[in-house]
Design brief:
Layout: H1 2-32, H2 34-44, E1 46-51, E2 59-60, E3 66-67, H3 69-81, E4 84-89, H4 95-100, E5 106-112, H5 115-120, E6 121-123, E7 128-137, E8 155-159, H6 163-170, E9 178-182, H7 185-194, E10 199-203, H8 204-210, E11 220-238, H9 242-257, H10 260-267
Parallel strand pairs: 1-4, 1-5, 8-9, 8-10
Antiparallel strand pairs: 2-3, 5-11, 6-11, 7-10, 7-11
Helix pairs in contact: 1-2, 3-9
Length: 280
């Protein structure tokens, strides 16, 4: 009889544990899954946007106000989503850590879409095309050409964990060069300007906003007829945030359909690079 009671109690305990496990799994799914992540954002009322400063995407104007294509684009998207944009400068090297720790709610700063990133994060519909270009001192541009690979006496810089760094490490053209990583694309340009580096590998869109007449980098130029790694930009959010992703993509499409996205891009000379087409 005691054995039967013991067996009955063991079975009851097992059922309780299994039910508890099932309940825990369901709760975790709700808190970290699609509905839970949007509920978390909606409840706090703001959408924390992880950025770095680089023109023409996000930068401080002469009065110290944050502006740029991504700044205006994100502000309009948040308006459509019914949340308040909150821009937060981040260390690009730690962007995924900050996203998963909920220090930020998205990475929206010229993020290149890759298969690896799609495995770790949900990424919006691609909204802009880009490529990597070489920036050098204007008076030395003639020294660089596609048929003449770089040598060990040439120092190349790019932002750590960026598409530019991938090019520096993977493209045969740079195989023999002396590569040094820096903490931002802006720092890469400063290295070339100061003469401590010969080549900076940066986003083409950054070159449009930065290397213009009258700017601090007017003495730098993009090496003509040389580009690498054609790519697309997207907005990254936490993995399995299905509802947030749907709202994000719907807002982007609405701005494309009503022409606001075109207007913002045109203001920063980026309209020709947009990928989002109007709905038919």
């Amino acid at each position: 009889m005691k054995k039967l009671i013991a067996l009955f109690m063991a079975a009851a305990m097992s059922a309780s544990v299994l039910a508890g496990c099932g309940g825990s799994s369901s709760t975790e799914s709700n808190s970290e899954g699609s509905t839970g992540d949007w509920s978390y954002i909606e409840e706090k009322g703001d959408f924390v946007i992880g950025i770095t400063y680089f023109e023409p995407m996000n930068y401080l104007d002469d009065s110290g106000e944050l502006t740029g294509f991504e700044t205006e684009f994100a502000t309009k998207v948040c308006e459509e989503m019914g949340v308040t944009p909150k821009f937060q400068k981040i260390d690009w090297d730690s962007k995924e850590v900050e996203l998963n720790a909920k220090t930020i709610d998205c990475i929206w700063n010229g993020l290149t879409i890759t298969d690896e990133r799609k495995e770790n994060m949900d990424i919006s519909t691609p909204y802009m095309e880009n490529k990597q270009v070489m920036v050098v001192k204007a008076d030395k541009a003639s020294e660089f050409s596609a048929d003449k690979a770089l040598t060990s006496n040439v120092t190349v810089v790019a932002e750590k964990k960026s598409a530019g760094e991938d090019v520096a490490k993977e493209e045969e053209y740079f195989a023999d060069a002396n590569y040094v990583s820096v903490d931002s694309q802006a720092k890469a340009l400063l290295e070339v300007k100061s003469g401590t580096a010969d080549v900076a590998i940066i986003d083409y869109v950054m070159s449009i906003g930065t290397l213009r007449d009258g700017s601090d980098y007017a003495d730098l130029t993009v090496v003509e007829d040389m580009s690498f790694a054609p790519e697309q930009y997207g907005i990254a959010i936490r993995k399995n945030s299905t509802e947030t992703l749907e709202k994000l993509n719907a807002a982007i499409q609405k701005l494309a359909d009503n022409g606001e996205l075109d207007n913002i891009a045109d203001e920063y000379n980026l309209k020709d690079l947009l990928l989002v087409e109007k709905s038919k």
